[in-house]
Design a protein that fits this description.
Layout (H helix, E strand, L loop, with lengths): L1 E5 L1 E2 L10 H5 L3 E2 L2 H13 L4 E5 L7 E3 L18 E3 H11 L4 E5 L8 H9 L6 E3 L7 H6 L6 H14 L4 E8 L6 H14 L3 E6 L7 H5 L6 H25 L4 E9 L6 E5 L5 E5 L9 E9 L3 E6 L2
Parallel strand pairs: 1-4, 4-7, 8-9, 9-10, 13-15
Antiparallel strand pairs: 2-3, 5-6, 11-12, 11-14, 12-13, 14-15
Helix pairs in contact: 3-4, 7-9
């Protein structure tokens, strides 16, 4: 079984399309020892995997009494009670080696090389990073108040793949944001072709009351244009997803059984370390929460299909 633990709440990034800073407040991080206790408690209840959650997990920061990070401009990093996200991951991976660890969501501006190296170091940290890009155009990224550029994002992707070659990478993309033109859209498509994501979450822009974009920008991309651009983005992603799925053929994957398949109650489903859904026939003696090894025999653009190896 798998469960979720919030390690941060709120957000300080103020992306112009996002309501989170207004609905959940400033960013706060949880005590690493309380996170560890939650993980151990979940394991005692039968859970084998935990996902660490936060609007931006990479900005996790705990310093003693948890002073807001904006107030911490001088920190003695040798203090025993100082924890950033890389240290939290390392701490949990060592203390709960019997549980698989996932996390979401990362912000490209805040992800450090030390986090990437910790992921590569431990087998119980799953090899998947959800890294929202939102747009491939620097003009649109600036309008969104995303604190990275197309170039720095691509550089980060290259670093991840050089340190963790087996890591899967997923994305969020918003198409049709205010003032997005065809050239901006083409830059998003070209970034997708450069990166080749394993999968992603794709949306057309819809204004959210209370956000900076809602108050200050004009939603000036026609709906029919948004729909056409979104379809083009989805079509590109589908090709890339199939590209990766083919690579799993006849390979054996370690999978945590999470439940019955929604399509056939004779099948189980679970996920491999890359967060890819795997479906396979039930066998006697296996149950939800068990780790099994599945040989892949077929695939769709979103699902691997296989059989448990005996």
């Amino acid at each position: 079984m798998t469960s979720f633990i919030s390690i941060t709440r709120g957000c300080d990034n103020m992306c112009t399309f996002c309501v989170v800073p207004f609905t959940r407040g400033r960013e706060r991080s949880s005590d690493p020892n309380s996170i560890l206790r939650e993980c151990k408690n979940l394991y005692e209840k039968g859970y084998k995997e935990v996902t660490l959650l936060g609007q931006n997990v990479d900005s996790y920061l705990w310093v003693g009494s948890n002073i807001l990070k904006k107030q911490i401009f001088k920190i003695n990093r040798n203090k025993k009670d100082f924890f950033d996200f890389s240290m939290l991951l390392d701490f949990l991976a060592r203390k709960i080696p019997f549980m698989r660890i996932r996390f979401s969501t990362s912000n490209p501006h805040d992800m450090s090389e030390s986090v990437i190296k910790v992921i590569s170091k431990y087998s119980n940290i799953c090899k998947h990073i959800h890294l929202p890009v939102q747009s491939g155009s620097n003009k649109i990224l600036k309008l969104m108040n995303r604190k990275y550029t197309r170039e720095s994002y691509i550089s980060l992707i290259k670093k991840i793949r050089s340190i963790i070659p087996e890591c899967s990478i997923s994305h969020d993309i918003i198409t049709g944001f205010c003032n997005e033109n065809e050239e901006d859209h083409k830059k998003t498509i070209s970034l997708m072709k450069n990166v080749k994501y394993n999968y992603g979450y794709m949306f057309s822009y819809s204004p959210r009351p209370g956000t900076f974009a809602y108050k200050k920008y004009q939603d000036n991309v026609p709906e029919n244009v948004k729909k056409r651009r979104l379809k083009e983005i989805i079509d590109v992603q589908r090709l890339h997803s199939i590209f990766y799925m083919k690579k799993y053929m006849e390979k054996t994957q370690e999978v945590l059984i999470e439940g019955e398949s929604k399509r056939k109650n004779q099948d189980w489903y679970g996920r491999n370390t890359q967060n890819t859904v795997v479906v396979f026939p039930k066998v006697i003696g296996k149950k939800i929460g068990d780790i099994v090894y599945v040989k892949i025999k077929n695939y769709t653009s979103a699902t691997l299909i296989g059989v448990i190896e005996k």
